[in-house]
Design a protein that fits this description.
heterodimer, A: alpha+beta, 2 domains, 10-stranded mixed beta sheet, 12 helices, B: alpha/beta, Rossmann fold, 6-stranded mixed beta sheet, 4-stranded antiparallel beta sheet, 7 helices, 10 strands, transmembrane (chain A), MacB_PCD (chain A), cell membrane (chain A), FtsX-like permease family protein (chain A), ABC-4/HrtB_transporter (chain A)
């Protein structure tokens, strides 16, 4: 071990051993770092959870056709003639066909409904709707019967609102029977209620309306062929995107918004915590003036004095990071949250404290220690050695 | 014809001034001093006479504004801060008035500090520490912390730390200023032993005339100049 390493280790050890003399201010630094880490981890886990819920909702093998020049379901309208034209097209549209040669598709509308004073999305769909989507399984009961006022509820929504199979709920002006629950692996679909298209149209006076058309693609790469076919229909502007892209765009916007709000808050708090760290470490240097000057007078290097103080700051910040991450994991991981998603309906999601969230928040916490400790550590190297010769140790 | 050996410590025409409140306050305006190897010099004088400034310059903590300052073959006045620090680590031990032991280190660890600057193995360091602790009469106290010791014992640890790397020169800044008479005499006996038996050159700043009696000679400093010299009988 080199003499420089030995000097540094002694300085680090003496600094850390003397922490109990400054327990209150050292604890306050660690706690302020923990708070910053916790807040940032909270926001990031919210964004991550939102992204996870929406990214799980979309499949690259499902195309969503929207009409009327919009790229969202809200405001989209696809005239019946367009659907008939599409159905009548022969040749390879890039869309899967059933045994009878018909396109595997589902016409859908979304009606915002109030349930326990919260707005939910009631999706009306053709019978093929659930099977077109990837990863959907009926976890309880059965699927709705065409034409009947029956609904199947996403697991997350059913759990939150206590919707049991066999229950009757009033949506709009009519009663509906819950006939099943479905699982979508925690994705945004689980925040929806699904029912037969005609039943929803009739209940909400939206006869003939289609907001979106879901089509099972032959393979993810065949979306371009579908887009080419749609371009030949001039009646209304039509957009075809993959379901994965549609939900990714939605999640990207909202997750960005969460991060856009979370980062400034966390950074502002980090600035405050850095000032706190600066104060703590200045106090540490002041407390150890005689010790630092003594070892410097004995011949210890400036670097060892710097490292002693700097490592102390990083260790305190590290303790704060550990506390903050532990608290955020205990508090936020798996927390059920909700927001207003597409179609102005409530979308539930689960906060996810993932490794990248822990890493990002942890690095910010350590940066507080690294920056907040650097200036006092520099000050420690510039202490007048004459202090050691006359000071009472 | 015999040649007079060059002094171990030599100050020639040393000038030093401090800026206080925008004005330069001269401390030394051409100080000369010669101390042969193996001498034990007590420096006395009233407050403000320049004792501390002299000690700081001898320790390489401060540098003359002008003049020359050499110890052995080294010109401290020409060295930079890092070089003086390294020189100090290898050639000098310092005994502080308030001991300046690190409270969170044991007696042995405190004594070992200067050895960490040398390329010695752990075993070599431990042997040297045991040897000097035995020399200052504190064998068996290796694991005790400074707070568990009396002032006299702490100062003996301070002396052990100063001599553990076997430097030729010991600088003592009021080494008995914080001790009762009995402890002070024990410490001074120790310094005399180090001077006479181990041939350490010692420069001791003190206010205590009794302490000065242990030195071979006493220099009186006043207003930045030596005004009197007394030799021990």
């Amino acid at each position: 071990m080199s003499t420089h390493t030995r000097q540094a280790l002694v300085m680090i050890r003496t600094n850390l051993s003397s922490l109990p003399r400054r327990s209150a201010i050292s604890a306050s630094m660690a706690l302020s770092v923990a708070l910053v880490v916790c807040v940032l981890a909270g926001f990031l886990s919210m964004a991550k959870g939102f992204e996870t819920a929406l990214s799980g909702a979309g499949s690259p093998a499902v195309a969503v056709v929207l009409g009327g020049g919009t790229n969202q379901e809200t405001g989209s309208d696809i005239p019946a003639t367009v659907i008939r034209t599409l159905d009548a097209m022969t040749g390879d549209l890039g869309v899967a066909r059933d045994a009878g040669g018909k396109l595997v598709s589902s016409r859908e509308i979304v009606a915002p409904v109030d349930l326990s004073q919260r707005t939910m999305a009631l999706r009306g769909m053709d019978a093929a709707g659930p099977s077109i989507r990837d990863g959907i399984t009926i976890s309880a009961g059965r699927i709705f019967t065409p034409g009947a006022r029956e609904i199947v509820a996403g697991n997350r929504l059913a759990e939150e609102f206590g919707l049991q199979v066999g229950d009757t709920v009033r949506l709009g002006a009519v009663d509906w029977t819950v006939v099943g629950h479905f699982s979508a692996h925690g994705s945004a679909f689980e925040s929806e209620l699904w029912a037969d298209l005609e039943a929803v149209r009739a209940a909400f006076d939206r006869q003939g309306q289609v907001q979106s058309l879901k089509l099972r693609l032959a393979d993810p790469a065949s979306l371009k062929r579908l887009q080419g076919a749609l371009a030949t229909i001039t009646e209304t502007p039509l957009v075809a995107v993959s379901e994965a892209d549609l939900y990714a765009a939605q999640s990207g916007r909202t997750a960005s918004l969460i991060r856009l709000f979370g980062w400034p808050v966390a950074l502002l708090m980090a600035v405050g915590a850095t000032a706190g760290a600066l104060n703590t470490m200045t106090s540490s240097v002041s407390d150890r003036t005689v010790e630092i000057a003594t070892v410097r007078a004995l011949g210890f290097s400036r670097l060892s004095a710097f490292l002693g103080t700097w490592v102390e700051a990083v260790v305190l910040a590290g303790a704060g990071v550990f506390l903050g991450l532990l608290a955020s994991w205990l508090i936020f991981n798996g927390w059920q949250a909700s927001t207003i998603g597409a179609n102005n309906a409530r979308m539930a999601f689960q906060l996810a404290v993932t490794p990248d969230v822990l890493l990002t928040a942890g690095l910010l916490g350590l940066a507080i220690g690294i920056l907040g400790g650097a200036l006092p550590a520099l000050a420690a190297t510039r202490l007048p050695l004459t202090a050691a010769l006359r000071a009472r140790g | 014809m015999t040649q007079t050996p060059a002094p171990y410590i030599a100050l020639s025409g040393v000038r030093k001034a401090y800026r206080i409140g925008g004005e330069m306050m001269p401390i030394f305006a051409g100080l000369d001093l010669a101390i042969p190897r193996g001498d034990f010099v007590a420096v006395m004088g009233p407050s403000g006479s320049g004792k501390s400034t002299l000690l700081n310059m001898l320790a390489g903590i401060d540098r003359p504004d002008a003049g020359t300052l050499s110890i052995g073959t080294s010109r401290l006045d020409q060295m930079g801060e890092a070089a003086r620090s390294a020189w100090r680590a290898h050639n000098m031990g310092i005994v502080f008035q308030f001991y300046n032991l690190l409270p969170m280190l044991t007696a042995a660890e405190n004594v070992e500090l200067p050895l960490l600057l040398k390329p010695l193995s752990r075993k070599e360091r431990r042997m040297r520490v045991e040897k000097v602790l035995d020399l200052v009469g504190l064998s068996g106290r290796e694991k005790q912390y400074p707070a568990m010791m009396s002032g006299g014992q702490q100062q003996r640890i301070g002396i052990a730390r100063a001599i553990v790397s076997d430097p030729g020169l010991l600088l003592c800044d009021e080494p008995t200023g914080d001790l009762d008479r009995k402890s002070a005499d024990e410490v001074l006996d120790m310094l005399r032993f180090l001077n006479r038996e181990l041939e350490k050159t010692i420069v001791m700043v003190t206010h205590d005339p009794q302490a000065a009696l242990y030195a071979r000679r006493t220099l009186h400093l006043d207003k930045g100049d030596f005004v009197e010299e007394k030799r021990a009988a």
